[in-house]
Amino acid sequence: MSPYITQARVYCSAVALRLVLLFYGLLQDAYSPMKYTDIDYFVFTDAARYVSQGRSPYERETYRYTPLLAWLLIPTSWPNPLWFSFGKVLFAVSDIVAGWFIVRILQSPNGAAMSTERALKYASIWLLNPMVATISTRGSSEGLLGVMVVALLWAVTCRRVGLAGVLLGLAVHFKIYPFIYGPSIIWHLDSPDPSDPAEKRSSSPKTSSWTMTRSIKDILFTFLNRSRITLCLSSLATFSALNLLMYVIYSQAFLEHTFLYHLTRVDHRHNFSPYNTLLHLSSAMPGRVSSLRLESLAFVPQLAISAVLIPLALAKKDLAGTMLAQTFAFVAFNKTEENMVSRPLNQN
After folding, report:
1. CB-based contacts of 246: which residues, under 8 Å, 6+ apart?
2. Is the pLDDT of residue 287 over 90?
3. Contact 257, 238 (CB under 8 A)
């Protein structure tokens, strides 16, 4: 191994990068009219303050997230001003943990089976990326979701299917869009688990005559292997339990702001979506542009490509590459896309 590429050097450099940006952010917020802190971070911390007072996080306008996020950020409401940056530290730590999982995936025999040095080189694209570090230290919660998704990929790679289901259910509860990875994982789990003799037997080669004459029932039982059933049940149980808990506590406000709002959302400001012009006209002249609800129909091509076509075409070949392609397609066809660089200009 090269003396310049070691785990200690890479991880310490990643931590140092984020510490520098955190302290720089404090200075810019204090002395510059253009603030470093993302405006969404103020939404998160306001919601956390409401929760600490026994109130609903949805009393904060524009809070459209799971209450779990506000619960996690309760320390930001504590009296000492330094605690206000707790969320940024949490998101930055999530970045680093995600990088650690990337290394583990690349080293895994079921993954790329890379050496530690080579895995660290690739993981450094994430760990030492100033854009990734800037987003988390500005207060974007995407770092939390990022570590959930990378941990999900690691769990599937290591055939910890039950854990993968829990992580998938948690990620989808946290933000809706990770559900697109579910079809890819289910399709990928067609390959037998080496530790499961039953699956190895059920997937053993059959004669061509048997293949030609097997019934739909046989195909269904072959598709519904133990791994797929475990993934579906564990993810559904986790997702349902979290949603039920939040509904019991926050009732209809939870469903409205966390899920239903996104189905009819029309946000044409600083929007780089291919639907931007149509959404802008729709919001300016409601009912005159079209009788169809564009904000709802926009999901059709987005989900058809990211949740159906790409998994069917790629998932059995390369799960990590498939999830990357899904993410790219989902973002490219999303009806709301923002330029993160321009957002501070709109905070005042």
Report:
1. 66, 67, 68, 254, 258
2. no
3. no
Band of residue 259 on the pLDDT scale cut at 50, 70, 90: confident
User: Burial of 236 by CB count in 10 Å (0-12 exposed, 13-18 middle, 19+ buried)?
Assistant: middle
pLDDT value of position 3 = 66
Higher-confidence residue of 270 and 306: namely: 306
Q: Cβ(94)–Cβ(27) under 8 Å?
A: no
The Cα–Cα gap between 228 and 276 comes to 38
Secondary structure string (H, E, C) spanning the chain: CCCCCCHHHHHHHHHHHHHHHHHHHHHHHHHCCCCCCCHHHHHHHHHHHHHHCCCCHHHCCCCCCCHHHHHHCHHHHCCCHHHHHHHHHHHHHHHHHHHHHHHHHHHCCCCCCCCHHHHHHHHHHHHCCHHHHHHHHCCCCHHHHHHHHHHHHHHHHCCCHHHHHHHHHHHHHHCCHHHHHHHHHHHHCCCCCCCCHHHHHHCCCCCHHHHHHCCHHHHHHHHCCHHHHHHHHHHHHHHHHHHHHHHHHHCHHHHHHHHHHHHCCCCCCCCCCCCHHHHHHHHHCCCCCCCCCHHHHCHHHHHHHHHHHHHHHHCCCCHHHHHHHHHHHHHHCCCCCCCCCCHHHHCC
Instruction: Using a pLDDT cut of 70, give the percent of the chain over it.
Output: 78
**CA torsion through residues 15, 345, 141, 56, sign:** positive
Reported as a single tens digit per residue, the pLDDT across 31-78 is: 999 999 999 999 999 999 999 999 999 999 889 999 999 999 999 999
Region of 32 (left: φ > 0; alpha: ψ -120 to 50; beta: rest) is beta
Query: Which residue from 321, 188, 172, 174 is spatially nearest to 234, judged by alpha carbons?
Result: 172
Is this structure's pTM higher than 0.70?
yes
Tokens representing 166 are: 């829990």
A 10 A CB-CB count for 191 gives 13
Take residue 42 and report the two structure tokens written for it: 């103020």
pLDDT of residue 202: 47
